Amino acid sequence: MPDSTSRFAPSSTGPAHPGTLLAALLAWLDARAGNGHLLVRIEDLDTTRSREEWVDQMLADLTWLGLEWDGLQKQSERVPLYEDALDTLAKGGHLYPCTCSRSQIRTHGLRAPDGGWRYPNTCRGTPLPAGGWRESTLPLRIALPNESVTIQDESGSQWNQNPTAEQGDPIAKRRDGVVAYNLASVVDDGEAGVNRIVRGRDLAFSTPTQWQIQTLLGYPNPVYRHHLLFLEEKDQKLAKLHGSVGARELREHYSAEELCGFIAWAAGILPASTPVTPIDLLSQFSWKQVASRDVLIHWNGSRLSNRGYSAVEEFPSA
């Protein structure tokens, strides 16, 4: 029996990039070093942006890098599970329709911890249609408990947040009928028995919200570990490295071993950028080696270069 079940959950709204491969490699190393079961889950619910060819290419790129997994899921094939979750939330009085537009939410001028606009729970208490949530043509939100949660991240950071007060009640189903990220992710993890989540720190701000949704739906709370990101300079600002180069172009300039070695070196696992396979890294892998700060990466059209660590020591506590 595996000691844990974890997952790597890329979206299919674009090609894999260096940050995707970093997250995949760290999730794989964590699972394999700990005798864990690793799932790959494709987040393809957004039919306006997802493409099947990107799904196929994503899986091909992961295989090319030397990664394998123990199960494959596609969110687009799991919609009945999300509908069951919506039924549960509605039955418990935790689901309500929302008439607020994004521009209306912005006018309140309230910032959330992730830098976005906080929803002030304007429509909380609005009843669902008499026929239930399926008859609503409006976005649906989850009425979270008005209480704080404390989450100890395995990386050492602690999250203290009242999600409904600091972020606002999250969307469960969008106006176009697509189930929103927070709900779909929680249902997928809960139904698959995921008890360990390794992912980039850009997703850490969603953790307290997902923690409360897990509790409302009766799922156990997983152990979390959030890791560094690869960043690039854009217009004198730092952004995730995903627009400059995709995996297909990287494969034209690197062998799989060379790229794996660069990623491992930039992340702090190796002392130098030398060709390796993921299996080569297993015997020496430890989270103590992995950098705690984000890494600045530059693509010059043919090679990646490591520009050092960002100025931020750790991601901030919520």
**Largest sheet, if any?**
4 strands, mixed
CATH topology descriptor of the largest domain = Rossmann fold
Q: What's the architecture of the largest domain in CATH terms?
A: 3-Layer(aba) Sandwich
The H-and-E topology, N to C, reads as EHEHEHEHEEEHEHEHEEEHHHEE
* Overall helicity: 25-40%
Instruction: Please indicate the count of domains.
Output: 2
CATH class of the largest domain: Alpha Beta
- Gap from first CA to last CA: 35 Å
Low-confidence stretches: none
Give me the number of helical elements.
10
Q: If strands are numbered along the chain, what order do they take across the biggest sheet?
A: 12-11-13-14
**How many individual β-strands?**
14
Beta-strand percent range: 15-25%
Task: Work out the radius of gyration.
Answer: 20 Å
Helices, strands, pairings?
Blueprint: E1 5-8, H1 18-33, E2 37-42, H2 52-65, E3 71-74, H3 79-91, E4 95-97, H4 102-107, E5 140-142, E6 149-152, E7 158-161, H5 163-166, E8 171-173, H6 181-192, E9 196-200, H7 207-217, E10 223-227, E11 230-234, E12 237-240, H8 247-253, H9 256-266, H10 278-282, E13 295-299, E14 304-309
Parallel strand pairs: 1-2, 2-3, 9-10, 11-13
Antiparallel strand pairs: 4-5, 5-8, 6-7, 11-12, 13-14
Helix pairs in contact: 6-7
